Structures are given as C-alpha cells and as structure tokens.
Amino acid sequence: MILVTGASGYVGGTVLRRLAESGNAVSAMVRNLGRAARVEDAGAPIRIANYDEPASLVRAFSGVDRLVFVASDGQARAVMRHHANVVDAAATAGVGHVIFTSITDIDASSGFYFTPVYRDAERRLRASGMKWTILRCGLYADLILSHWIRPALASGEMALPVADARVAPIARADVAEAMAAVAAAGGGDGRVHELTGPIAYSFGEIAAAAARAFSRPIRYTPASPADYLTRLWAEMADPWPHAFASLCRSITERRYACVSGDFEALLGRPAAHFEDFLRRTEPTTEPLPAIQTAGRPCASDKTRGSV
C-alpha cells in the first residue's frame, strides 16, 4: 500500500489522485479532519497524523509499503523537526520505500534558508536503513508566478537582486506527476533525481514571457540586495524576508541554472516550458505558503552516498 503525506496540499493531492486513478492501493495522510474534506473526492482511505506527534505518525505508517513524503513547510526549525519525525516513524513502522521531495539547492556552501533543512532530511533517510528515492526539485514555476510575476502585473516591474542569473523553473504539477510515477513503479534503489524545467531563463526572459502570456507590460529590473530586503521586511513576517533574500542570493550564485534530463527520463516527455505554464495558468493564482524549492548546478550523485 502507498501512503501520501500532505495529501490536502497541491502536490500531495495531485499525487494521490494520479495514483488512485491508475488503480494503485493508496491512502491519504492529513493533519486533521478539516483537511480530510479536501481529499475525499480522491476516493482513497484517509489516515490522520500530525508531524509533531510521532506516535500518530507510527500508527499512520503501519502496513505502508511505499511512503510518498511531501516535504513539510514553514519555519526552518519546525520543518527540520517534522522531517526527522517522519523518517524516524517510517523506520519504526517498517516502511519499505520512501519517496521524498527535496530541493536541488542542497550544497553545504549554499546560504539558502532551507538548505540545512533538506540536507538533514536526506542524511536521515540515507542512514535510516529504508529504501529511498529522492526527487530534488528546482525552483517552482508557481512560486515565480505567485510571488514575483503577479505583483509585477500591477506595477509593471519585477525588481529582484538576481543580476543576469538564469533559472530552469518546473511546475508543481510536473513534480507531482514525477512523484506518482516513481511511487507507482516501486523500486527504491537509492537514486537522486534532479527535477528541473527544460530551459534556463534569465529574469529578463521571464518578464518577457509573462508580458506575452498575460498581454501586460512587465519588465525586469535588477535591484540591490539591501533594497530588496528592506522591501521584504515591509511586506512579510519573519522568517520570510531572510528566506527570500537568501533564495535570490542562491539564484545569483547560479544554483538554479541547471537543466536536467531526469524528468524526461522518468515521464518520457519534457517538463512544461515556462511560457506554456504561464499561458494555461490564471495570473491570480493564490500565493504559495512559503518557499520550498531552489536549485544549483546538477549533482552527479545518482546513487547512495553522503550529502
């Protein structure tokens, strides 16, 4: 049996529906009964568990062969604790194979706010004794739309401290498709897959693509890190100014520039091009709750090893 965590969220919910539609024995894990209502239409059994309650996780993971572990979200210390609890509970419950959504900006030299969180989760998985597959996701196209393009639709300017760096965005829908494919296939051979879009774009090109897709004038303007951080503190609560500022610094350091072929190898097709993603997405998409994914030059590590 396959269990999908975070099933009331976009990625987890999409994975759940894909697996159920293809005839897999799958269950959904949600944090409470209120969230359970969001996944009832998938027709899958629902298990209630809380990332901060290890005993509830062990119960939820009982009898699970494959765990689709969609990463937690929020303040870094809490997310690190949640990830540790899930890995420990999965090992205790005897889960056979864990499929985990990590990030591509995983290098120890990165200053990105969430990098230590995901490095720790990967380390725990490798040391757990369970079989695992890690899907390191690049920068979400949805995040670029929600946090940077959408405000620019009103102002006409996307001002970011990323200089002329490039990114290869991937849509959350494509990440979910990849997770469902890996979960359905089973295995658990200790592989790391880098999931990125098929093209790396400059932010000038991203602004131009958005202008074409939404028929509104948008331009990219390089901003200073100090000015950007000041703006963030006026708009966001802690820790998000630091998270977004460090994300932009990682972009500037070319940690997002990789274009990987791993998605196409898994799905038999390339991930969606960024402008195609924009054209089929409403510009009023609700903001993502937080930053989840970043990127770096493609890792050569495709087998078991230390992070």
TrEMBL record:
Segments of this protein annotated with the region Disordered: 284-307
Chain ranges of the NAD(P)-binding domain: 6-183
Pfam family, one: NAD_binding_10
PANTHER family: NMRA-LIKE DOMAIN-CONTAINING PROTEIN, QUINONE OXIDOREDUCTASE 2
Protein name in UniProt: NADPH:quinone oxidoreductase 2
Organism: Sinorhizobium sojae CCBAU 05684
